[in-house]
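Section 3.1: Structural characterization of target chains.
Under the original work plan, the team committed to producing a structural model for every single-chain target entering the pipeline before any wet-lab resources were allocated. The record below documents one such target. The sequence was received from the expression subgroup and is listed exactly as submitted; it comprises 250 residues.
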Amino acid sequence: MSSTRNPFPTGSFEFLAAEEAKHWWFRARNRVLLWALEKHVGHFKSFLEVGCGTAFVLEGVKNAYPDAELYGSEYFEEGLTFARSRLPDVAFKQLDATVMSEVSRYDVIGAFDVIEHIDQDQVVLHNLSRALNTGGALVISVPQHMWLWSQVDEFACHVRRYTRAEMKQKVEAAGLKVEYTTSFVSLLVPLMWLSRMKKHEGEYDPATEFHIPRWLNKSLEWVMKLELALIKTGIRLPIGGSLLMVAKKP
C-alpha cells in the first residue's frame, strides 16, 4: 500500500463482497485468470493469492483446483473478514507484501490488481519471487496505460498504471522469466477512455461503476467473453485496460 495514500474507504470490502459476483468486470477477469492458470501454469499443489480482498478470485481457483492447498493474504483485516466467511477452510493471514519473508514456499502466487497500489512494487516482486518454488509461477494482472489514468484510479488508491515493457522489466529484475503476456479489456478501451475522460463534478462516486442497467452489464460481459475467445486462439492483444502476465522461476 502506498505510504502517502489513505486506506480504502470504510465499507469498501463490504461493498465489493456484495457486488463482485454480479459485475461484468470481476466475472470476466476471473475467466481470464482461470484460463491463464490452466493454459500457462497447469497442475500445482500450492497457491497463494497476495492481496486477496474478499477472496472472490480465490473462490474461483478453489472450484477449479479442489485438491490444491490454497492460501490468501491481505493488507486490510476488513477484507479478510469477508474472505474467511467465503472460504472458511482456506488459510488466510494479514500481510504487508513489502515485508514478506517466505522462501521457496509456493508453486503459484497470484497478485491480481494489487501491486499498482504499492510504492515499493519492485520490493514486492522480489519477495514474491523468493517465495516461489523453483519452477513456480507468478501470475499477475495490473491496470495498463497511464493515458487511462482518471479519478477511478485515484479513488482506488492506485500509485500507477503500467506499460507492458515496464512490467516485464520489473518482473525480470526480480529473477523471473516472463512466459506469457497479453492485454485484456481491450475491445472496450474506446468506451473506457471516453468514460474516464469525462469530467466529474463534485466528489467521484465509485458506485456509478456498479450501478448500471442489467442489459448493459450483460452486454459488457458478452464483449469480454468474445475477447477471451480471441485470446484463446493465440492472439495477444496489444492494448487494453488491464495487463496479464505469467512468469516462472528458473
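Residues 1-6 have pLDDT under 50 and may be disordered.
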